[in-house]
Design a protein that fits this description.
Number of domains: 3
Shape: globular
CATH class of the largest domain: Alpha Beta
Helix content: 25-40%
CATH topology of the largest domain: FAD/NAD(P)-binding domain
CATH architecture of the largest domain: 3-Layer(bba) Sandwich
Strand content: 25-35%
Structural class: alpha+beta
Number of helices: 13
Largest sheet: 8 strands, mixed
Length: 462
């Protein structure tokens, strides 16, 4: 294989691409980023979920959120499960708002300062070659270069062709900005045809999003703007903005939940929305973009140092994608089902029924007898699982069970499968705890044993 110009090329400089570039550059990899837009760019998605801030802090980038954002207003107004408006305090809302134009620019700047090369504005056209990938970056000064590995962080459409699978009913959004004022609360309201959300950006603008099944204005004969204004006029929380001036044109966005059928291969990874797009109601888009970037960077780091673990790394990414999609689908169904007053409306009815997961049978563990022998449940399997150990992907023995959301490798920092070796003699609880005492203090071993019992990983041998 020819020596490539770059170890890694990342297409897309949003939160996912910039985070991956930052981490790989810090680790000493030769990494470049191709970003089509000129920053700062207007971008929807101003709310950061609480989980995003610890991720940024772990990267040493917590100051970026502080420089680009503001805590959520003192009050959030919600009209969701009930027709009455419910005020929610900042402590309960626990969110953080950012100006995405500034946030994205600062994150990409951090990657550049760490050593990543940024091609911007430039449109990437990648194609496989003998050294990995050949990328044509078409911009004001077109360049062509090669890279050993490619990370697709180019948003919902991505830059690598492949099948995209929806995991929600179709959903579209109308997005605009209105003049704002200090102290403006975040607002969320369910209406028969969808839901509306708004949040202040700085002290002089409000970001407004209307989510529905599709462009209903086409059926009414109204313009997009007139349709939006008519919709706002019929609400409780937004009626006062029905005639407000708009700070720019209305953007129409696809908000359907969708995932890449194949998020990884021997020489590429898909991260951020190139891997999956979650329901915007969860407000976890930026958090998941950063999280997938951190995972993707570790996989690439592993592939560069231990090529023999490539299949292990790509499997890890696929399984984390599937896990996130399943959890988000279940969360969406529960949250949309709360709006019972609109249950017969097409928008809400389709979301209550989509992706229904059959509930497992409830189990309340009885007290664990000290004198009866224990064994692994018959439906628990032990096999090698890819897991993140430090900054690398490694293979470790793990447990799989219908009662676990994901394979179990570590519990409280302990490799569980190694503790459960040698259960053929059906040891009692006390015998098992004595065996574990060689490596675990009893104060740690007892709750671990109880946790495995309560989830039916351990069951009685007789």
């Amino acid at each position: 294989m020819d020596c490539p110009d770059w170890d890694v090329c990342i297409v897309g400089g949003g939160p996912a691409g910039a985070t991956a570039a930052f981490r790989l550059a810090v680790w000493g990899h030769r990494v470049c980023v191709v970003e089509q837009a000129q920053y700062p760019r207007p971008h929807v998605g101003e709310s950061l979920s609480p989980g995003a801030l610890p991720l940024l802090k772990s990267l040493g980038l917590a100051d970026i959120a502080a420089r680009a954002g503001q805590p959520a207003p003192d009050e959030t107004l919600i009209c969701w499960a009930h027709p009455q408006v419910e005020p929610v305090s900042r402590a309960r809302a626990a969110s953080f708002l950012v100006d995405r134009a500034r946030f994205d620019a600062l994150l990409l700047q951090a990657a550049e300062l760490a050593g990543a090369k940024i091609f911007q504005p430039a449109r990437a056209v990648p194609e496989p070659c003998s050294s990995g990938w050949r990328i044509r970056a078409a911009g004001s000064t077109p360049v062509t270069f090669t890279a050993g590995l490619l990370i697709d962080a180019a948003g919902r459409r991505g830059c690598i062709p492949g099948r995209r699978v929806p995991f929600s009913p179709p959903m579209r959004a109308l997005w605009s900005r209105l003049p704002g004022r200090d102290g403006e609360p975040v607002r969320l309201e369910a209406i028969p045809s969808g839901w509306i959300w708004s949040a202040p950006i700085g002290s002089d603008a409000i970001s407004l999003l209307f989510f529905s099944s599709g462009p209903g204005f086409r059926r009414t004969g109204l313009s997009c703007e007139d349709f939006l204004r008519k919709t706002l006029a019929g609400t409780q929380l937004f009626a006062g903005w029905a005639q407000a001036p708009l700070l720019g044109p209305i953007a129409q966005l696809d908000a359907t939940c969708i995932r890449a059928a194949e998020p990884a291969g021997p020489s590429y990874l898909k991260i951020g929305e190139a891997s999956f797009s979650l329901d915007p109601l969860s407000s976890t888009g930026v958090e998941k973009a950063i999280q997938t970037a951190m995972i993707g960077a570790c996989i690439v780091h592993t592939m560069r140092h231990y090529p023999e673990r490539t299949a292990l790394g790509t499997r890890f990414l696929r399984e984390r994608q599937q896990e996130t999609v399943a959890l988000n689908t279940a969360w969406n169904r529960r949250f949309y089902a709360e709006v019972e007053r609109f249950a017969d409306e097409p928008f809400w009815n389709s979301r209550r029924a989509y992706g229904v997961i059959s509930p497992g049978s409830a189990f309340t563990a009885p007290a664990l007898s000290c004198g009866r022998g224990l064994r692994l449940s018959a439906d628990v399997s032990v096999q090698e699982e890819p897991c993140l150990v430090g900054d690398f992907i490694e293979g470790r023995l793990g447990l799989r069970s219908p009662r676990l959301n994901r394979p179990l490798v570590f519990l409280g920092g302990v490799e569980v499968a190694t503790l459960l070796e040698g259960l053929n003699d059906a040891p009692t609880r006390e015998t098992l705890l004595r065996r574990w005492s060689a490596t675990l203090p009893r104060i740690q071993a007892e709750p671990l044993c109880r946790w495995l019992w309560e989830r039916q990983i351990l069951v009685y041998a007789d």
